[in-house]
Automatic annotation (TrEMBL):
Gene Ontology biological process: regulation of DNA-templated transcription
Protein name, per record: PAS domain S-box-containing protein
Boundaries of every Sigma-54 factor interaction domain copy: 273-502
Coiled coil spans: 239-266
């Protein structure tokens, strides 16, 4: 029953959806829709990758235009299509459709469309699931220890659970439909109906010899009219036991909630790591294989390649119930690192907190401790870390009492640890303890085929975050950014894209949005790669660079610039247009 409350889109999606190629005519697609009684067609390329959507609404718009129905459908489709996976919850899908004001969502798995979710699917499923939910809720209420009574606006009882039967020895069939005052002349329900105010945690004696802690809550409709009163009663003698039980049940609920989140994260965490480069695909595959083990992992790669993203993905997929805790070994002073990792007791050193402090190992118990920049860990501290990895026991600073820990270690570095080992700057035994599995992440310059997809991903993310509508992206933007070295890797690319989205003109991203230090390098590489011996292109390059330089000197004064260049102003305008210089 609980699983039914969290059903997935794959349970209700339509699998017999219509397909069309972007080259098919409007007339052909329209006839398909009429014959199949469908409101939409999913437009795909020859490899069955989604290109866009075409709906009856789009068809109605076309009919108002002077357009030949023999034209290809490609220019009239919705190209910016949101898609979701088959394990997306229906609730989340519905919320997304409402937020984006869309009536349908294609369902994609492994790059292929396997179904479509429409508002009709959700509506048809709603009534069935609501009945199941009501039955589920009634079953819960019947098994709650509190006596629960619900009365309508006239004081007639409309619900009386089993605990109420046991507490007052009145069967539900005896009281439902009757006035509550016939059974309880001093019922708090009557007071709430009169005053329309809630009563909470009040000691009360509904009948002689029966003392309870009672709450009576008025229920109002959307028009602020009182429609019911809900009361909950419990014997005072059970209050202490109830407190303990509620605390236990609260922990169980939190545990189940946490387990549920981890189950969802387990299915989706690796999906936000993008790439078709072989090295990154191999790294993802290896990370997925070892995520469920207890093996220590060492992630290597340049700064900004996504080491912490990988570490979090591994933790989420591991099924471990504890927290993911990250520590940057280079950001914490040497004298504080030990207390940060292992914690300390009261009086351990001057300035120590009165009750002591829990260390990162304890915080990550049954979870994952991510040690970033492990190559910067002081040599003496390395020996203490090694001992914990060997024994599984930590000692807080100032204490001789060992604390067992079940913490999975994932370390990361952008340094050459093997070289440091030869220089006696990193312990051999610690390296082999940490690098049971080693995952190397390639720099972005070795992932040229991924740059365009990452650009589009970050543009969409930043546009949503900054609430900026992006209308177009010049192809030249991709050429320039793909030919830049990206010393800062993905982190640098993301920051540059954020700047471009914020500073773009009217939602149009052109090469003018690219920072100059990248633009100069990128354009030169593109032009050299096109033809380093093409005389015309060399001349154009010199002309372009000279015009840019003179315009900067004249602060954009085109008349002065033309004079300095010894050309007519009309010629300068022609050149500006020719080279797409604003």
């Amino acid at each position: 029953m609980i699983a039914d409350l969290f059903f997935k889109v794959k349970d209700i999606m339509t699998v017999d959806f219509l397909k069309a190629l972007p080259t098919e005519s409007i007339n052909s697609v329209m006839n398909k829709m009429i014959r199949a009684f469908k409101d939409e067609v999913i437009v795909m390329d020859e490899n069955e990758h989604i290109v866009g959507l075409f709906t009856k609404y789009d068809l109605s718009k076309i009919k108002k235009l002077d357009v030949s129905f023999d034209e290809p459908i490609e220019k009239y489709i919705i190209k910016d299509v949101l898609v979701i996976g088959p394990d997306f919850s229906v609730k989340d899908a519905r919320d997304l459709m409402i937020k984006k004001n869309i009536g349908r969502l294609p369902i994609v798995e492994n790059g292929k469309v396997i179904g479509i979710l429409t508002a009709n699917n959700i509506r048809d499923t709603f009534y069935i699931k609501m009945n199941e939910l009501f039955d589920f809720q009634n079953n819960i209420i019947d098994n709650i220890h509190e006596a629960i009574c619900i009365s309508d606006s006239k004081g007639n009882v409309i619900y009386w659970n089993k605990s109420a039967e046991n507490l007052y020895n009145i069967k539900s069939e005896e009281i439902i439909g009757k006035d509550i005052a016939d059974f309880f002349p001093n019922a708090m329900t009557l007071k709430v109906l009169k005053e329309k105010k809630p009563i909470e945690n009040m000691q009360h004696e509904p009948v002689k010899g029966k003392s309870v802690i009672l709450s009576a809550i008025p229920i109002f409709n959307s028009s602020n009219e009182l429609i019911a009163v809900v009361t909950t009663d419990r014997d005072i003698t059970e209050v202490v036991n109830l407190s303990k039980q509620l605390e236990s049940e609260k922990e169980k609920v939190e545990f189940l909630e946490d387990a549920y989140k981890k189950e969802i994260s387990k299915k989706y965490s690796f999906s936000n790591i993008y790439g078709k480069n072989k090295k990154i695909i191999d790294a993802i595959a290896l990370a997925q294989r070892v995520s469920h083990t207890s093996a220590s992992i060492l992630i290597t790669g340049e700064s900004g390649t996504g080491k912490e993203v990988f570490a979090k993905a591994i933790h989420e997929a591991s099924g471990r119930t504890g927290n993911f805790v990250a520590v940057n070994c280079s950001a914490i002073p040497e004298q504080l690192l030990e207390s940060e990792l292992f914690g300390y007791v009261e009086g351990a050193f001057t300035g120590a907190a009165k009750k002591g402090k829990m260390g990162k190992f304890e915080l990550a118990n049954n979870g994952t401790l991510f040690l970033d920049e492990i190559g910067d860990m002081p040599f003496e501290m390395q020996a203490k870390l090694l001992r914990v990895l060997q024994d599984g026991i930590i000692y807080r600073l100032g204490s001789e009492k060992g604390i067992p820990t079940n913490t999975r270690i994932i370390a990361a570095t952008n340094k050459d640890l093997k070289k440091m080992m030869k220089e006696n700057k990193f312990r051999d035994d610690l390296f082999y303890r940490l690098a049971v599995v080693q995952i190397e992440l390639p720099p972005l310059r070795e992932r040229k085929e991924d740059i365009k997809d990452l650009i589009n991903l970050f543009i969409n993310q930043m546009a949503d975050e900054e609430d900026i509508k992006i209308n177009s992206i010049d192809n030249s933007v991709y050429d320039v950014l793909e030919n830049y070295n990206w010393e800062g890797n993905i982190r640098e690319l993301k920051n540059v894209i954020q700047r471009m989205v914020i500073l773009c003109n009217n939602g149009n991203i052109t090469i003018n949005c690219i920072p100059e230090y990248i633009l100069n390098v990128g354009i030169q590489k593109v032009e050299v790669e096109e033809n380093e011996y093409d005389l015309q292109k060399i001349v154009e390059k010199v002309e372009k660079e000279t015009i840019i330089k003179i315009l900067k000197l004249t602060n954009g004064n085109k008349q002065k610039a033309a004079k300095m260049l010894n050309i007519k102003r009309t010629t300068l305008y022609y050149k500006l247009n020719q080279y797409n210089l604003s």
